[in-house]
Every structure is written in C-alpha cells, then in structure tokens.
Amino acid sequence: KAKEKGGNRVTFFDNSFGEQAKRRFEIEQDLRKAISQNELTLYVQSQFDSQQKLKGGEVLLRWMHPEKGFISPAEFIPIAEESDIIYELDSWVLTNSLSLIQQLDDRHSTLSLSVNISGRHFHEARFLSLLKTKIEFYEIKPNQLTIEIIEGTLLNHIESAIEAVQYLKNLGVRVSIDDFGTGYSSLTYLKQLPIQELKIDRSFVFDAPTDNNDKLIIDMIVSLGKLFQLKVVAEGVENQSHFDLFQEYPEVIMQGYHLHKPEPASDWIKKLK
Ligand code: C2E
Ligand code: MG
Ligand code: MG
Ligand code: MG
C-alpha cells in the first residue's frame, strides 16, 4: 500500500513538474513574439516624499498573454534572463521609458523615472552604449533616469559593476540598488560603488510596524543612506501603519499600494499634464 501511495506521489510530482516545465517553455517561446505583437505595456508607480509630494515613479513591465492572460514580471523576467530575450526586453523597456521622460514637461523636470535592468545585462558594454545612444536621441536630462539593479546581481561581478556604475555616473544617470538588504552588500562594496540610491526591500517594510528587528534594519539602511549621502526609497508601503512609520524618517521616499497602485504609463503622463 505504502508503495502504491509513494508511486502515486511520484506520478503526481512528475505531472506537476511536467506542467511547470511546459509553462516555462511556452512562456519562453511566446516572449519572443510578445514585443512584435504589442502584448507588452509599461506601467508606472508613483513615489512620494513624507509630505506626499510626487517625486517620480518606477516603470514596471506588464505582459498580457493572448491565451494565458496577465503574466507577472516576477514570473517571466527570470525566464527571459535564462535566454537572450532579456536583452530585447530591457532595451524595449529602456527605449519606451526614455520616451516617457521626454514627454515630461519643464514643470516636471525634477521628477525621476526608475527603470529595472537585469543584472545579466547591466554589466555589458552593449547596454551602456545603447543607453548613451538613446539618451542622446531623446535629448533627456540624464539625471531624470534612475537605473535599478537588484543587489544580489550587482555584486556577482563586482569589478565590472564598479566600471558600469562609474560609466553611468559620468553620463549623469542615477543608479539605485533594488531590494536592498536581501543580498550581501558589505560596506566595502558600497564605498566603491558611486551609486545614488538604496531601495529598502518590501519584506522589511511589511512587518516593521510590529517587528522591532525589521524596524532596526530600516534604521540601519536609513543611517547608511545618510553616511554615504544616498537617497533612500522604501517599497511596499501598503497601509497607514507603514506610512506612519516612515514619518519618523522624513528623508525617505515612499512607494506602495497605500500611496499609488501602478497604472498605465500613458495615464500617468496624462494626469501630469
Ligand atoms: P521590484 O523592482 O522590486 O518592483 C516592485 C514590485 O512591487 C512591483 O511588482 C510592484 O507592483 C510591487 N508593489 C508595489 N507596491 C506594492 C505594495 O504596496 N505591496 C506589495 N506587496 N507589492 C507592491 P511587479 O510589477 O510585479 O514586478 C515584480 C518584479 O519584476 C520587480 O520587482 C522587478 O524586479 C521585475 N520587473 C518589473 N518590471 C521590469 C522590467 O521592466 N525589467 C526588468 N528587468 N525587471 C522588471
Ligand atoms: Mg525595482
Ligand atoms: Mg524592489
Ligand atoms: Mg523587492
């Protein structure tokens, strides 16, 4: 009997594993066509200071699959990163984000848009030259663009990361470490990287109103920000208690559902006008 059960379990596992592999494979295949078939759109989520003044936004990619419906970037970006599709995706996002910045009028010249770039792409010369070319083409102020890069992937290749961040700094583009606190940044690395921003991961924000350890981590990141003169942005500000918590840190910029849910980039731009 036990053997039968075990056997069933193995079969069940095999099937679900097969399902997962199939979905992954299909997503990878379909992603190759997603751009040309206009299935991708950009959303923007606003960022605010403690006075609820608009400071900018983060550009977030959305994919509406013709049969599978909405697929989260949390699912398809890692798949794209395992193949060369990520280059095409990042380039598409970057180009369209620069076009958004170009549409901001002079009244909004202090707003900054943040764009997520895959760690795999970030270290490569082709990304840096694409960025330079596009900034010149759209004639935007480079400091209106912030490149977000996830902490773990930034530090995988520290030598080329330092070079890339320095190159961006010379261009005038800002660099932010995304999901900060989830990787293994040492102070030595932080000192070597000429970045401008730290983004507190939402996993620390979530319980911070009731969990003193998370609160201490936020304290520490805010202090690091002061020490290195970096802008600090908190993601995942979902409710009033999160918002209230950050009143203690008036220098921290906030982003989260409590303040603004991501909306289509075209609507975001329209509202500004
Ligand atoms: P991320 O860069 O950390 O982006 C923040 C994510 O948190 C977004 O999910 C956003 O919708 C979500 N979020 C915003 N406010 C709240 C909140 O109050 N509570 C909670 N629980 N979540 C909130 P999204 O859009 O699903 O993106 C997931 C991840 O996918 C991003 O995490 C980023 O790593 C990646 N990603 C998104 N767009 C792009 C892109 O254009 N290029 C690349 N390379 N990666 C992208
Ligand atoms: Mg991000
Ligand atoms: Mg993040
Ligand atoms: Mg995060």
TrEMBL record:
Limits of the EAL domain: 24-273
Q: Which organism is it from?
A: Pseudoalteromonas fuliginea
* Protein name, as recorded: GGDEF domain-containing response regulator
Keywords of the record, alphabetical order, are:
Coiled coil, Phosphoprotein
